Each structure stands twice: as structure tokens, then as C-alpha cells.
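User: My instructor asked us to take a sequence, write out its structure as C-alpha cells, and then describe one feature of it. I'm not sure where to start. Here is the sequence I was given:
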Amino acid sequence: MSPVFRFAPSPNGTLHLGHAFSALLNFDLARASGGRFLLRVEDIDPVRCRPEFEAAIYQDLVWLGIAWETPVRRQSEHMAEYRRAVERLSSLGLVYPSFESRAEITRMVAEREAHGTWPRDPDGAPFYPGDAKLLPAAERARRIESGEPYALRLDMEAALARAGALSWTEFGEGSGGETGRIAARPQAWGDLILARKETPTSYHLSVAIDDALQGVTEVVRGQDLFHATSVHRLLQQLLELPVPDYRHHRLIRDAAGHKLSKSTGATGLRELRAAGADPADIRARIGLP
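Assistant: Let's start with the prediction itself. The C-alpha cells for your sequence are:
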């Protein structure tokens, strides 16, 4: 079977050199191995994701010399699949609704941290501090039916008990240089959110499902997502999904050593192109032949 690679940007801004590195690396690996290269648009956020950014992604990739199979999978067109996954996890007793607002959670965490430490996930977000898991089923149903906002959380303790020990094969390296067979530690993420009332999925859930449905065999992405792989392995196990191999690559950083980011205004490929750069210049800047 031919290996299947993918590049999966979010259309919430324009592509920068970090995106170019990941896209070109996936494309080059697919060509070198006689594999397939897929493009996926991760547009589950209807507020930040915009059509003009999606169009710009296609333009930048074509300019870089990247070709992909069609049709492109757009996550916003597959919400029903994500809902079914949440329903399946719920039927296994692994999901519960929480009703606190973000502001309430921030306050609760601050109160706990005032008296000591409170756990945080690898991205720095605090663990859920509430006790919604203890609410009676009738109370949960009443609050949902009344129209109250809610988030659907994975009961990590129950999920770990069902899944058992997990691992994945790492062909790149993690943020600490990890490679080879990696033991997954999804417990480091606490009772994370799988979906919300207004959005039937999350990054972690949709990525795990999409990679399986698209037949992705090689997940090549930045080291900043190394720890998230533990969550993806857990969801793959719970939903009986195939497990790809993983390769986490180095991050492209600015002169100060910070990871390039849309949120911090990293120079886009469009601006570099307008300034006279060509695809060969881009490859040279990011260290690709």
C-alpha cells in the first residue's frame, strides 16, 4: 500500500514559512516514497476561518509547486461524522457535559492556584476544575434541554481505564528529542473538551477522525503537536481507528527564536512573493533542497 501524507492548514490567516516547511516536507516525502499527498482544510471555527484565507492557501501552495489530490476535505462539511463519534463515546460512558463559562473556569482555577498549584496541560491550559461529572443524568438533561451552553468533555479517568496503555511510532523527534516507540500520556491533558453546544467537534477529535477516514498513514507535522499525539492515540483506541506513523519536525523560528505564528504577525508567503521571493528562495530559507 502506498503511504499517504497530508497537509492540513486552518484558513484563519495566511500561510507563512512554517506552513511552507510542513507542506513542502510532506509533499517531498510523498513524491520520494511514491505515495499520495492530500490537502485538508481545518475550518471548524466559523468565526476565525474565512473563504479569502482558504483561497489564499490554494494560491500559495500552487506557487510553491505543490499539487494535491481532489476533492479537498473541508472539515465544516463533515460535522455529522464528528457528531456520530461523540455519540459513540457518550454511549460508552466516556463523555459528560460541563456548564461553566470560560470566565467561571478562570475564576475557579485562580482560587485553587491561590492555595497551591493546579495542573495544566502541555499547552499551558489549566485542567477543568469543576465537578460537572458528578451531576445526575436527569440534571444534565434538564440543563441541556433548557438551552444552557455546555461543553462535552472526555472523562479521562474512564477513557484511560478502557483504553489501557498506548504508544505510537515516532520517526521524527519530539520537543525533547524523543524518537522510536513513544509511550502516550493522555492523562497530561485532563478532561479535555471534545465538542461544544455550538460546535460538534474539536481539533483533537476531528483530526483523529479525518486521518482515519482519509487513510492517512504518515502524519508529518510540527514538534508543537508532539504531546497532542497522546490524545489522538487515545481517541483512535476508543473509536477503533487505524494508527498512522508520526514524524514531528523542527519548527521554523524567527530571529528571536520564537515559533512563527499567524497570531504574532509572521510574514506571510504572499508578502514574501510580492517582495520578489521565488519558491527556490523559500526552500533555501527553511533549509529544504
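For the description part of your assignment, you could build on this observation: The chain has ten helices and ten strands. Try explaining in your own words what that tells you about the chain.
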